[in-house]
Write a structure and sequence with these properties.
The chain is an all-alpha fold and 370 residues long. The chain is 59% helix and 2% strand. It has one domain (15-360). It contains 15 helices and 2 strands. A two-stranded parallel sheet has the order 1-2. It starts with 14 loop residues before the first helix and ends in a 10-residue tail after the last helix.
Length: 370
C-alpha cells in the first residue's frame, strides 16, 4: 500500500539545473510570445476525441447502425475515443495545463466521469502520488500493484515469474477494474489517508458521486445498448468488454512504457523519508521518452511520448512538448544528467517487457547512481 507521507528530495543536488532549465523554458515562451496553455489545436483535438467516443454510441442507440460488423466497428472507435479523451483531453485539464481558466480545466477534467472513471481519485493517484514520487517504493501507486512486481524493492513472490505472460491481459482489464472496484477502493483509502479532504471533498460526497456516476455510465453505455441493439445481450456485453480491453491495454502500455524500463531508476526512502536526488533530477532518472518523431502517434496520445518534459513541466500543455524537448535535453546533457529516450514505441515496450521478466524472475540489478 502506497503511503501518503512526504518524500524529502535532496535540495543540494544540482539545484541550479532546474533553475536554469525553467528560465530557458520560460524564455522560449516569452520569445515566441505564446501561452503555455492550449490553443485552437487543443479545441480541435477535444472535439475530435469526444466525437470519436460519442458519435458511434449515438449512431448505435439511434438505430442508424444495424449491421453486426458495423456495430463492432463502433465499439472499436469508442475504445479509441475513450483512450484519446484520457490521453489528450482530461489529462491536460486535470493538470491545469489545458486553459488558464480553472473552470475550463475543471469541466474538461470531469469528462473522465463520463467514460467510467472518477476525476478526483485520478488526480490524487496521478498528480499527487505518481508525479510527486515517481518510481519511489511505497509512495508511487503506479508501481504499487500487488499482482505485479514493478519495483526491485517490492517483495518477490513465485507467481511474479509469469507476469510477462499475464501482464497484457491484466493491462487490458485496467479500465474495467476502475469501473467496478478501483474507484470504490481508492475513495475509501484516500479518505483514511486524508487525501480526499486535501482535494476539498468529503468521503460521503465522493462515494455518492462515484456510485451515481457508475450507475449513469453503465445505464447509458451498457444497459441501453443491450435494450436497443439488434444483438443478443451477451454479444453487446462482449462488445462493451472489448471496448474497455482495447482502451485499457493502450492506456497501460503508454504509461508503463515511460517508467518501468531497464534504464530507469527505482528508489526507496531512507529512515528519514529522504531520497538521494533533487526533485528535477529524480524525474529525469525515473522517466523516459519514446517515438518523439512519430507525429500522428504523438498527437493521438497527447504528447505522452514526451514523458520527460511532462514530468518536469506538467502545467504546460502537451502541444508545446516537442518545442521545449531540445531545451530540456541540451540542459540535461550540460549538467551531466541522463535523458532517456527510445526511438520507437515498440522499442520502449521491448524494454518494459524485458524489465517485467527481470523483476518477475528476480534478475534485476539496480542502476548505479549517475
Amino acid at each position: 500500500m502506497a503511503t501518503s507521507s512526504t518524500v524529502r528530495f535532496n535540495k543540494d543536488d544540482q539545484p541550479e539545473f532546474f533553475q536554469v532549465l525553467r528560465k530557458r523554458v520560460n524564455q522560449h515562451f516569452s520569445d515566441k510570445g505564446i501561452t503555455k496553455y492550449g490553443d485552437g489545436r487543443m479545441v480541435f483535438k477535444t472535439v475530435f476525441m469526444v466525437a470519436l467516443y460519442a458519435v458511434p454510441l449515438v449512431l448505435m442507440l439511434s438505430g442508424l447502425v444495424q449491421a453486426t460488423w458495423a456495430i463492432v466497428l463502433m465499439w472499436v472507435l469508442m475504445a479509441l475515443g475513450m483512450s484519446g479523451i484520457g490521453f489528450s483531453v482530461m489529462h491536460d485539464a486535470n493538470h491545469g495545463a489545458y486553459s488558464p481558466n480553472p473552470k475550463v480545466n475543471s469541466a474538461l477534467g470531469g469528462i473522465l466521469n463520463f467514460v467510467g472513471g472518477y476525476h478526483i481519485n485520478w488526480k490524487i493517484q496521478h498528480n499527487v502520488l505518481h508525479h510527486s514520487y515517481t518510481n519511489v517504493h511505497e509512495h508511487d501507486e503506479d508501481i504499487d500493484k500487488g499482482i505485479f512486481r514493478l519495483s526491485p524493492d517490492q517483495e518477490h513472490k513465485p507467481f511474479y515469474r509469469f507476469q510477462i505472460i499475464y501482464a497484457p491481459i491484466l493491462y487490458g482489464m485496467m479500465t474495467i477494474f476502475w469501473l467496478v472496484a478501483k474507484d470504490f477502493l481508492q475513495t475509501r483509502d484516500y479518505h483514511k489517508r486524508g487525501l480526499l479532504e486535501a482535494q476539498g471533498v468529503s468521503y460521503g460526497s465522493a462515494m455518492m458521486h462515484v456510485v451515481l456516476l457508475k450507475i449513469a455510465y453503465v445505464a447509458i453505455t451498457l444497459v441501453l445498448p443491450i435494450m436497443i441493439l439488434p444483438l443478443a445481450w451477451w454479444q453487446t456485453l462482449l462488445c462493451f468488454l472489448m471496448m474497455h480491453f482495447i482502451s485499457g491495454l493502450f492506456l497501460a502500455l503508454v504509461f508503463q512504457g515511460a517508467h518501468v524500463l531497464e534504464e530507469t531508476h527505482f528508489f526507496k526512502t531512507d529512515e528519514h523519508g529522504s531520497v538521494e536526488n533533487s526533485w528535477a533530477v529524480h524525474q529525469l532518472k525515473t522517466t523516459a521518452n519514446f517515438a518523439n518523431g512519430r507525429h500522428f502517434f504523438a498527437w493521438f496520445i497527447g504528447g505522452l511520448n514526451h514523458q520527460v518534459e511532462h514530468h518536469l513541466f506538467p502545467n504546460i500543455c502537451h502541444i508545446h512538448y516537442p518545442d521545449i524537448a531540445p531545451i530540456v535535453k541540451a540542459t540535461a546533457e550540460e549538467y551531466g544528467i541522463p535523458y532517456y529516450e527510445h526511438p520507437t514505441f515498440l522499442a520502449a515496450l521491448r524494454s518494459h517487457f524485458r524489465m517485467l521478466y527481470k523483476l518477475g524472475n528476480n534478475k534485476y540489478e539496480r542502476q548505479l547512481a549517475a
